[in-house]
Records
---
Amino acid sequence: MNIPFKLRPYQQEAVDATLSHFRKSDESAVIVLPTGAGKSLVIAELARLARRRILVLTHVKELVEQNHAKYESYGLTAGIFSAGLKRRENHHQVTFASVQSVSANLDQFRDEYSLVIIDECHRVSGEETSQYQQIIKLLQQQNASLKVLGLTATPYRLAMGWIYQYHYRGFVRGSEEAQDKPFQHCIYELPLSYMINQGYLTRPELVNAAVAQYDFSALPRDRFGEYAERDVNQLLGKHQRVTRAIIEQVIELAADRRGVMIFAATVDHAREITGYLPEDQAALITGATDLTDRDRLIQRFKQRQLKYLVNVSVLTTGFDAPHVDFIAILRPTQSVSLYQQIVGRGLRLAEGKQDCLVIDYAGNHVNLYHPEVGEPKPNPDSEPVQVFCPGCGFANIFWGKTDAEGRVIEHYGRRCQGLLEPADGDKPAGPNGRPQQCEYRFRFKECPHCGGENDIAARNCGQCHEAIIDPDDQLKDALQLKDAMVLRCAGIALGVAGSKLRITYHGEDGEELGESFDFSKPAQRTIFNRLFGRRFAKGQAPRSFSSIDEVLGLQALLPAPDFVVARKQKHYWQVQERIFDYQGSYRKANEA
């Protein structure tokens, strides 16, 4: 057979990884390749190698058409099942289809398929009622050994987190308890930096906005770190001069550029932007744009009849215009994945294209080359930090903060993400013969019954299965008692009285509580080390202190509890509970 395309080395590696995985497992898998890496060629090669029926799904007709064309360029014939393309062919060995069309015609897909490939698979949710899951469930009824493979540049959803559980490099995504991820394994991944350094993608020129920026930092965010459209429109409405200045700069900088994509925050914002652009050179596309008009405008842009294309959240995936060499980001986002998808629109190679200018006018402060951390940003000044596990040595990536020298001074990780490889001759200890996730926890809730360490959100102990008291219930109950004090702790101070180490807890309003640990008594040292030594340096370097002098020499790294609960005795307050790593409805001192 005359093969028109020679796979790049990494594309062949992705194909080989897929074959290797599915020869030994039926569990679903994901391939992660940056935007512009040529996922359609990987799909075409896998389809070419298949001996039984396969179904290739995606969410937009442009990708259905693109993937189908790559496959047929091999000289092979495949079907298309897509209402948007006005074709309903499902009798071929290989069918390229839109998920919407298949979902609406499930009765026509009752044959036995061996493999389902899902392009842009970050759109797949874990909910059984979703269109993708309904299709997979139906095909599994015909073939219990159905293989499911996803391809994406960004394997992360704000509402779900990572879309897979296990990574082939030996770590997990999310908690061991999470069972709702649509894919089990990531079997191959390539970073964006590799693609650019090897010349497979255009180098982005990341430039800070020179004239003006929007400041979205004061707006309230939802639990995913995103902003409400109403709030954004209200802010932007007050800063029309800023928008005009930004677009004036975009036009000036675009003088020597071929194609400019502008990503707006809202539909109203996009209309305002378009109004400032040269009328005969600009087009606006939103989710409400008529499909025929949308296709016509996109074609005019690709043919370079239009220079500027303004859009609102509709051209971040499934859009291929290699001549684009200027990306202007005027919308806020906390999602590294979305940011990478946006910038990726301008990174495809094109003849004569030297680079792609990228200007962020929304102050997103996103590191284009850094992967997702896996959780929404705890606060605006958080950044990805590397935290080594004291238990297994795995280098975790968590949100955190660093000092001027780059040292980690805070991180928000809970449990080590490393997978423990079995010793020679041993079988993996985890479920289904998988390696076991490292048990080390940087933040934890201690079981009052057995002393076991659990996730800070756990309701029952993972070791003895007894119920663990919810910290919110503890605080609520204490606040209702006349002889109890709840101190919102802002910090601690140490003192010495003979063999006793005195800890004073300072409240945010100046109140104080104190307790002592007698280091001459082993039992007292043990309690101190369980409370403070185990959490030393944010859990990064747990210690067992043997002397007071040792504690005093390292007191700056001792943890402070978020709340301290005490009960009134005759002449003093006795500390009864210290609540560390609190997450709940009550405000902590540093959140004032």
Note: The chain has a mean pLDDT of 88.
---
Amino acid sequence: MNAALLTPPALESGTLRVYPLGGLGEIGRNMTVYEYEGKLLIVDCGVLFPEEHQPGVDLILPDFAPIRERLQDVVGVVLTHGHEDHIGAVPYLLKLRGDIPLMGSRLTLALVEAKLKEHRIQPQTRVVAADQTDRFGPFELEFVAVNHSIPDALAVAIRTPAGLVLHTGDFKMDQLPLDGRITDLRAFARLGEEGVDLFLPDSTNADTPGFTPLEREIGPILENVISRATKRVIVASFSSHVHRVQQVLDAAVANERHVAFVGRSMVRNMGIAADLGYLHVPPGVIVDLKTAITMPDDRVVFMSTGSQGEPMAVLSRMANQDHQIEVGSGDTVILASSLIPGNENAVYRVINGLIKLGANVVHKGNAKVHTSGHASAGELLYCFNIIKPRNVLPVHGEARHLRAAADLAIETGVEPSRTIIGDNGVVVDLKNGVAKVVGQLDIGFVYVDGSTVGEITDADLKDRRILAEEGFISIFIAIDTQTGKCIVGPEIQARGFAEDDSVFDGVRPQIVKALEEAAKNGTNDQHGFQQIVRRTVGRWVNSQHRRRPMIIPVVIEA
């Protein structure tokens, strides 16, 4: 991967430009921009969830900077499916221009519209379906059914005079799917015969050998786990994983239990899925949370959010005993999801917390209670052989996944020079059947922190980490700026460093001496004296305590 910034040249006529603004080198915030003849088409607009080293951050958005001044050129946004890492940033894009048309399947758009309603945005939407062809500006779009861990997922073929692009979105090749909707390999083959000039495959499982296990293998295991549970059962999953929730409903019915949805997004999304007929709810099985809490322990299943250890999600709050559902001895908790890279510590912290409360925790590490929604290496090999793309740009994965997908493409005959492994912001031009890197945009992280968007920087997060890990020291001094002599202070206070402020008795004389010497050497301004105090205290703390706390000196002229 070439991380060096390179300004791309002006786009030549008859050339298709492709630049991902998220989703490369990470699992999340998937967003790719296609540009042709001055018009832009966006495929997906998702979020990335923060890791432990990003304290206080709620969401991470794609960096809209490269298109912010060109939003009027955007002809539409194609949403391949309804997972947060593909639709979660749509409200933030539409806050910049509210009339951008959104295209997606019926379920995908229903989930997006519910999200936008919370932001008080009324979108322009167009429902599309598999085998349908549509045109937006210079882009002719053909939608292809793909199988994923949410119903109604679509790949999109993009035709322009510059060539044919196939963007899979997230997909796998489950041959016995719960909803009977398989990935349309016939359409993939037909597109391959037409000639796919650039293939953007889902790379998330490219380094996993073989084939992704079938979804239908999970249902009997869930049913068995629930049948052996003697008290309450709590199942945590993604709030949009309709197939998994369906299996939990079926298992609950088989064991004469009722189900309560817990978590705002779970309640909202499953209500939508049920209303549209994607979730089949047996009569009488669903009860509200208040009713479920009063029911006998062996008659209820709680279907909740929080499978990734998110601090404010339901499962984490249960583990912290900060939820009305009080997990106790004999309860069974099932984590029916994969571990997103980066979330491992948070998830295991929740697991440990639940075990300490006496729960029996069942997860992918000790039982087959989940299977991935992404194609493994064997499935990708099939796709490369069927499609025979001229050029490949792997997307939707960390660096190791992108490399693995590129290696698979090369094994099936794609020229190594025609496989592109890029970072977010890589600019790829397609012309005459050849795709090549022509630039690298400066792409950053856009943090959502409470009600602020993009105002928190990496430097702010570094400060938060220092405060959390190293503590905080403030020094107040009033001095004569002519002589550097202390009139008041140094008064030193610390938080998260030492309980007794007398620990600083050793550094106070050093501060006094350093200020007087600085004045003799010509320092006579507030900022200069503050820097002297910061360096003096910093050296002392580092040498005496091996710590690097945040140091805030306040020097005033007496």
Note: The radius of gyration is 28 Å.
---
Amino acid sequence: MKPVSGGWSLRRRVITLLTVVGVLLIGLATAEAAMAARNRTQIDAILNQTGPLRVQSQELLNAVLDQETAVRGYAVSGDPADLSPYEAGLDQEKATISAMRALLDDYPQIGQELQVVERTAEQWREAVAEPVIATTQQDGTRAGQALVTEQARQRFDEVRSAVDDLQQEILAAREQSAANVRNSSNVLVILLIIAAVVVVVAGAVLLLSLDRMVIRPLTGLATQVREVAEGDYQHRIATVGPPEFTQLGDDVDAMRQKIASDLAEVREARERIEWVNSQLQKQAEELTRSNRDLEQFAYVASHDLQEPLRKVASFCQLLQRRYAGQLDERADQYIAFAVDGAQRMQRLINDLLAFSRIGRLTTGFVDVDLNKVMGDVAGQTEAARQYADAELTWTELPVIRGEEPLLTNLLANLVSNSIKFRRPDVPPKVHISARLVGAEWEISCQDNGIGIEPEFADKIFVIFQRLHSKDAYPGTGIGLAIVKKIVEYHGGRVWVDTDVPEGTAIRFTLPALPEDVEAAAATDPAEQPQPVTPGDTTPADDASSALPEHSAEADQPDRADGPPESGRTGDMRETVG
């Protein structure tokens, strides 16, 4: 992806807007916090300073009044008990003044007024109260009352006026604090309103910016993408807005161009495929016609060609039986050649018919017990085994899905070949075994015959491929080709294991039933055989006695009707028959 360039990016714009809003909100929050602290201080001044000062000023006035009343009463009665309110008022005055001074750190003007009250009260006591008390004690009530004059009352009025001035100053301070509280509260409310306005304005700006820079470009891009998705792959996608969206539009357009290019290639490929399909359809039609012709040929070969061939063979055999020894030796040889050629032609036609029927004339796959099949094979090969004194054994074989006649033909061909290609003066032994490898059964046909060289291991499965002359080992050379076709028809493979120490081992695979695979998977994995590839050597299971033999009718493979004339031809050993 190319780097975003040109103009402010969407991220930069959003971050800038959020930074400005954040700075404003932080400033407003700081101012609100300071104003709230100031407001709290002013409220504390009202509640804890000016309020108590007002109460204390009233208490101070009451204390002074108590003193003046007590002095007047004592001057009238002369009873010392009447001076108790004077002493109490004096103590109350001192306590109140002391308490008030503790609250006057922030109010110097009130302190000055308090000093005036204290000084005026002291002057009143020195000029009026103490002389009246002393005169009354010494000269009696008449003398004391004589001192309570209008001037004395004026003196006390000065004290009262000083207390009133103190109260007015306290009230003015309280009103000022209340006004400060109201002002700070109003400022705090204004700051909160400003913060709300900032948030609303920032939200509106952000919403409008998102609409202009995000929603509209995305809507335009989505509209163009839908046009492309509807099939207009040549429509160029152009995007306006922040650099990120421009880059996104360029990337989407590049993707459109790539898709358009790929679609063009797909169209070309589809056209080529359609052309190939048309050619394949033509070839399939040709193949159908060819198969139809092949079926007609097979029908002709199995009916029309057989009749004259049987006639030729029959008359040649009649000539051989009737005129044998009556003609010269060369005539007898010519007749023998004709009889042998007709018989071999019959066997070749029958084998070709059998080869062509594999996979074409099907009866459907069923569960086939290979043990039963081996019983049928034993019955089919009984004559050849008795002639060659051969031993046929097999271990427990599985049940597989397939066509029983074809599997019987398969095993009969393998057993017949093993008996045919035996070593001179050595009784042939043939053993059939099976083992489960993965999801397949690997079935082996092991013999003690003449063996086969590794370089000929692949040639023996080719139709009509012979490694020996027909005089050495009779046959048409099609038996193992039939074996390979049957195995492949059942979904397996066949090969020659060239690493066995003696004889020949032909192995082939057949798909296993699911229940056999599941049963094997449930056992200990260490007991499972490892998969092998063609050419691997695996010791065969110990041979067991042959199961009861049963006869069965099936297409007969090439059999050894007589002993081979020789057990070896040059360096080439076992072949198909």
Note: The chain has a mean pLDDT of 77.
